[in-house]
Amino acid sequence: MTRRHYFIQGGGRGLGLALVERLLARDERAQVIVAVRAPESAEPLRRLIEREGEERVQIVALDLTDESSIAAARRHVGELTERLDLLMTCAGLLHDDSGLWPEKRLADIDPANLARSFAVNATGPLLMIKHFHDLLTHGDRAVIASLSARVGSISDNGRGGWYAYRASKAAQNQFTRTAAIELRRHSKQLICVGLHPGTVDTGLSEPFQHNVPAKQLQSAATAAGHLLDVIAKLSPEDSGQIFDWAGEVIAP
């Protein structure tokens, strides 16, 4: 059996870490390369390496907001493998400790917060495709996926607000679609999609969970399983689309 190689950006915690753990559990021959901003503090990944071994888990440094860091990570990954079967970008910025928070009114808009949201939610995933796509255009089935959000759908926006997050995720979805069209010229078997995980019990959603019915709040492990199930069923004809955790297409 041929060893499969998976690359997970943002796999040090939350949903990204759950994806790493699920991939290892589902594929006993998998090599999972995990990119985090600060490898020295990625204790859960260190424990995974102790349990699974370095043949199964590798950590690389990558700051999604720094293109030189992404390029350096690409060089590092190229030393580990000549090909990838899955590239997954798990970045998402909705709020942080510096004051970034979903806007309710036009008066709340801050250009600096808009720029940071776009850097993480839209530009970062696109730069991942720019620097890593050549490892997936090998002619066999491969998947490039990035975590998106239903609120990035313009047609689905009936409530307003959340300007930075909505717009940056809409831009991410457009980048996914545009890259999929170009990459199809390089490999007919390469699938490029966005994935909406639903509401997951992580730090990103924690301040807003009181509005979510208990049955709709998923654990990270459950959400990771759903997303990997969706990825497993994708075909080349699905490339360029955005799917939710149940495998349903989200309208742009």
TrEMBL record:
**Classification via InterPro entries:** Fungal_SecMetab_SDRs (IPR051468), NAD(P)-bd_dom_sf (IPR036291), SDR_fam (IPR002347)
Q: What is its EC number?
A: 1.1.1.100
Task: Give the record's GO CC terms.
Answer: cytoplasm
What organism does this protein naturally occur in? Salinisphaera shabanensis E1L3A
This protein's name: 3-oxoacyl-acyl-carrier protein reductase
Which top class of enzyme applies to this chain?
oxidoreductase
Which SUPFAM superfamilies does the protein's record reference? NAD(P)-binding Rossmann-fold domains
User: Where would you find the membrane-spanning parts of this chain?
Assistant: none
Tell me the GO molecular function terms.
3-oxoacyl-[acyl-carrier-protein] reductase (NADPH) activity
Domain of life, source organism? Bacteria
Q: Which UniProt keywords apply?
A: Oxidoreductase
- Classification via CDD domains: carb_red_sniffer_like_SDR_c
